[in-house]
Design a protein that fits this description.
Strand order of the largest sheet: 1-2-3-4
Order of helices and strands: EEHEEEE
Structural class: mainly beta
Number of strands: 6
Bound molecules: zinc ion
């Protein structure tokens, strides 16, 4: 679950966004190797990985 932006970055949402309504997300380069920015607060213990729709895990 992510959204690609025109500037070459991708927004990744917390894996609990749907289940728990967590609003936290991070902005990554499209190569997924760097966290540019983290926004929002988790309403639970922050996960070590963000899970994408196709089953990949992104380290945060
Ligand atoms: Zn969260």
């Amino acid at each position: 679950m992510h959204k690609e932006n025109r500037d070459g970055t991708t927004l990744w949402y917390c894996s609990r966004r749907q289940a728990g309504g967590c609003r936290a997300h991070v902005k990554l380069h499209q190569d997924q190797h760097g966290v540019l920015d983290a926004q929002g607060d988790h309403d639970h213990e922050p996960p070590q990985y963000y899970r994408t729709r196709d089953g990949q895990f992104v380290r945060y």
